[in-house]
Amino acid sequence: MKTIYVDNNATTAVAPEVLDAMMPYLTELYGNPSSTHSFGGNVEHAIKAAREQVAALIGASPEEIIFTSCGTESDNTAIQAAISANPDKKHIVTTRVEHPAIKNMYEHLSKQGFRVTFVPVDRKGRLDMDFLYDSLTEGTALVSVMWANNESGVIFPINEISHEVRSRGIAFHTDAVQAAGKTPINVADTGADLLSLSGHKIHAPKGIGILYIRRGVAFSPFLIGGHQERGRRGGTENVASIVGIGKACELAKTNLDEMDTRVRYLRDKLEQGLLDGTPKSTVNGIREQRLPSTTSIGFDAVEGEAILLMMDALGICASSGSACTSGSLEPSHVLRAMGVPFTSAHGSIRFSLSHYNTEEEIDFIVEKLPPIIANLRKMSPFWDGGSA
Amino acid sequence: MWEYTDKVKEHFLNPRNVGVIDNPDGVGEVGSLACGDALTLYLKLDDDKKIKDAKFQTFGCASAIASSSALTEMVKGLTLDEAKTITNEKIADYLGGLPKEKMHCSVMGRDALEGAIADCMGDALPKIEGEIVCECFGVTDIEIERAVRENGLTTIDDVTDYVKAGGGCENCHEKIQEIIDSLTGKEPVKKTEPAPLTNIQKIRLIEESLEREIKPSLKKDGGDIELVDVDGNRVIVKMHGACATCKMSQLTLENYVESKLRELVAPDLVVEEVSA
C-alpha cells in the first residue's frame, strides 16, 4: 500500500538533496569543528556555509543565527534570554494558540511569579490585536507570537505586531516553525528580536533547530558550556544536521514559489473537494490568511480518531485536533480557543501538504474520505439521518 | 498511535449491528457530544424475554465503536438477568483488552447496557444520583466510587481512564483522591495548615533562612545576598559580589532564592531584586 503523506506540519520527509549533503559528515568528515587541525577546520567551514544558507532564507546576517537541538529549545532559549535581560519586568505576553514549547513554558513561568497574558483569537483564528496592545505595560518583558498556527494554518500579522511591541521597548519573539519555507520571512522587515525555526518541518532531519537573535539584542545562553556558537549555545555542534538544515533552507527558499502556486492549488483542490463531497463540513480558520499548505476541516457529528484510523487503513496520513488521538480527553487547545463547537471540534482533521504531494494523491483523498465520513455518520447518534 | 488489538481493529473497521431498532423494548443512552463520545443501545426481546436483537449508534473513537460492536454481539441470546452480569471488564476482555486510557469506552458500553435493561424491565432509567465531582465531564461521586470499587483503581489517572473524571480542568483531583482513599481504606492525608506567620515572624524566618541556607551556597560561587525589605509577600533583595555582575545567572539565582524561601518560609513569596 502506498503511503500518502499529508501531515507535513507534524514532520516532513528528509529531502534527498539534504541527505546527500549530510552524508560526508556522518562518514569520513567526522572532525570536530573546534579542533586546530585542518581536518576539523574543514568541518567548521561547512558550518559557516550552512549558517549563511539559513540566514539567506530569513534575510538575516549569519552571525545572528545559532543552531539548537530543536524548535522547542529555540523557543525556551528565546524566552529565558528575554526575561533574563529584563529582570525587573515580571509580565510576559503570548497567545492562546501557541505550540506547547511556548504555552507550557509560559505556564511554568506563571508559577515562578510572572504575570502571564494569553491573547485570545476569534472564531476564524485571528488574533485579538486590541487585547494584545492593551495588555502591554511598562512591566512587560516579552511578547511572543507565533508566525503561523500549526493547526489552522492562520498567519498572524507579525510585522505589525513586532513594530508596535518593539516601539514600546518590549522584546518580541516569534515562533516561525510552521511559517518557514511556506511563506516569505524577512527579519529585516519584521524587526523581531528573536525568531525560532525547526529543521524537521522543512525537510531536514529531526533534532536540529535555529534561533535568530537580532544583532544588539541582550542574550544569555540556555545551554552553558563550551565556546561553540560564540558562547551562545554550548555543546559540540550537530554537524551533519547543521549541514542538513542549511541545505534545507536553501531548498525552501527555491521552493517558496512552488509552495505559493502548485502546493496552494493542491491544498485548495483538496479542501474544496472535501467540502463539496461532505455536507456539514467547515474550514477552521480564515481561508484568506493561511499558509498555502494547510487546511483544517471540521466534519460534524463524527470523531477524529475514527476518521484518522479509517484513512490510515488506506495509507493516508493526516492528523486531528481530536482529544482521543492525543490521550487527552478534550479537543485541541487551538480549536477550543477559536470556539469551534464540539460538534465539529472532535471531528476536525488537519491536512498539511508539501511539494512532494501529487495531484493523484489529492484526488485519491477526495475520492476516499467522503464515504468514510458518511459511513461514520451512519453510525453516529448525532447525525440527523440526512444523506451524509 | 494507540496500541489496539487486532480484535479492536476488526470490530472498528467492520462493526456489527450498527443502526436503530424500530419499536425497541429498551433503549440506553450515554455520553454527549461535548464529552467526545456517546452511545445509544437498542434492545429487542423475543417471547422468552431473551435478547433477540441489539443495535447501536456510536459517536466516538475506534475503541468506542469497537466496544459498542462487541457489546451487541455479547448480549444477543442472553436473558436480561444474564446480560446484567456483563461488566466493563468483560467487554474489554472480549476485545482482547483495551489501552488503559481507553477503558472509559468499555464503561460507556456497560452504562448503556444497564440503561437499556432497565428500560426493558419497565423501570425508570436509573437516575444519575450523587453529587457531581467532575464538572468538565459531569461525573458523580457514585460513578467514581463504582469504577474504583469494580476495577480496583488506585490513582487519579486510573479514574480518568475509566470514567473520564479529572481529565479536564483538574480542579476535582483532590475530591477524587479522597474518594479513592476512602475506598481503599487509606486515611485521607490531613493537610496541617500552619498558623499564618505574623509579619515579624516572617521577616525573622526569611533572615534566618537567608543566613543558614541561602548565603552559604551563594558564597561558594563568590556571591552574596542582602535583604532590603519585606513588603507583604514581596521579598526585596540585593545581590553582591559575583552574583551582582553575573547577568547570566540572574534568572536561576532568583529562582533558586525564591524557591528556597518558598520552601522554608511561605509558599506565596515572590523574590524581587534591586540593583546593587
Question: Spans of chain B of 5+ residues with little confidence (pLDDT < 50)?
Answer: none
Helical fraction of chain B equals: 40-55%
> How many β-strand runs of chain B?
8
First-residue to last-residue Cα separation of chain B: 54 Å
Task: Enumerate how many helices of chain A there are, as a single number.
Answer: 13
Q: Which architecture of the largest domain in chain A does the CATH hierarchy give at level 2?
A: 3-Layer(aba) Sandwich
Largest sheet: number of strands, sense, barrel closure of chain A = 7 strands, mixed
Describe this structure in words.
The complex is a heterodimer of chains A (388) and B (276). With 388 residues, chain A is α/β, with parallel strands linked by helices. The mean pLDDT of chain A is 95. The two termini of chain A are 27 Å apart. In chain A, α1 runs antiparallel to α8. In chain A, strands 2-8-7-6-5-3-4 form a seven-stranded mixed beta sheet, sandwiched between helices. Chain B is of the alpha+beta class. Chain B folds into three domains: 115 residues, Sufe protein. Chain: A (Alpha-Beta Complex), CATH 3.90.1010; 52 residues, Arc Repressor Mutant, subunit A, CATH 1.10.10.1100; 76 residues, Fe-S cluster assembly (FSCA) (GMP Synthetase, Chain A, domain 3, 2-Layer Sandwich). Helices cover 45% and strands 19% of the residues of chain B. A three-stranded antiparallel beta sheet of chain B has the order 1-2-3. A three-stranded mixed beta sheet of chain B has the order 6-7-8. A two-stranded antiparallel sheet of chain B has the order 4-5. In chain B, β4 and β5 form a beta hairpin. Chain B is elongated and about 90 Å long. The mean pLDDT of chain B is 86. The interface between A and B is large, with 39 and 44 residues.
